[in-house]
Amino acid sequence: MTAPEERRAVKVALLGCGTVGGEVARLLAEQADELAARAGVAVELAGIAVRRPDKHPELPPELLTADAEKLVTSDDVDVVVELVGGIEPVRGWLLAALKAGKSVVTANKALLAEHSADLFEAADAAGADLYFEAAVAGAIPLLRPLRESLAGDRITRVMGIVNGTTNYILSAMDSTGAGYAETLDEASRLGYAEADPTADVDGYDAASKAAILASLAFHTRVTASDVHREGIADVTAADLGAARMLGRTVKLLAICERVADDDGVESVSARVHPVMIPRSHQLAGVGGAFNAVYVEADAAGELMFYGQGAGGAPTASAVLGDLVAVARNLVAGGRGPRESAHAALPVRPMGQTPTRYHVSLSVADRAGVLAQVAQAFAGHGVSIAAVRQSDVGDRASLVVVTHQAPDAALQSTVDEIAKLDVVHEVVSVMRVEGEDQ
User: Fold this and answer.
1) CATH top-level class for 143-308?
2) Is 419 a catalytic residue?
């Protein structure tokens, strides 16, 4: 075996110098000696690509460039750190870097959720590394345990809070009783929500992260388009109140799991949607803008990962951890983990995925109503786990919690119930996770 080439430094091209990129640049300078000691070699910036170099007077001008494509293929660069976000032109830059033999560290969840196969293939062809710990859950060390620590185990489920904005909103709605719109406004004022919060509140951000988690956990290529996605805009204060009465709360969860059919044939389910969970569940107490992910594996059992899921410094911490790993690999002449998609399990459609529903109805207050509603559930093969009824003026409030059934069967049941003469309104429908109440 040929000895690895001795290096005096690992040269880094930084793409983007916003909230996270600025922290990465600062920490590379302030912690240079410590990073060199950990990596076994000096880690130095070779250049920083930004859209408008004149807008960054705080950075050494000799490092700044607007030509990202030229920077990533420069002979002076060993590693490209990408913190720009978006798909194009970033995808082209990273493919060019990998084809030129540069290793890549990225926090780009949207790109990875759609084009990880292309990136991994380019990395393999060039013998380069591709690391992306910061793409999911910020500072929380989550992806490396899935890729490496649990590589010898069989993961059956990954479920978690992976978007801080939606968790802040739902936590605040639960604690204050306020509605969605006013809580979103407050989150924007406090800086927890972007000026355009669509990616967060409509579940796109969480769906990209779910695709990455499912791909790693189940050794299967899962893209964002494979993930069933629902946001939180339709969650009401009444939903949180109903959950509270049942000893539950509401969270937007990414849920990725192995699902077996009646013949034992496995597939992957990946979904993002609001969920009622028991307040005794480990995820129920995760408040504010924090993230937490719950992992179940055959041998390891139940694991919990918790921490700050966003922000400049926390995300930069994950980026630097990847950068040190890549530098160590370059010093040793080795490589980090490659893509593992050997299982190639099919992705199960949401309609075939087993779920449970909490259905709140406004119904006529007379005899026989419950029997008609129960008959509709039975007609679609859906078993009822619990029923609660209370009078509201000249009407009655009826809450039904089901056992597991295919999601399509549950949705068809709700559609049929909505047409019953005795049902004034389907007030809300929400999926349920956790033990029966």
Assistant:
1) alpha beta
2) no
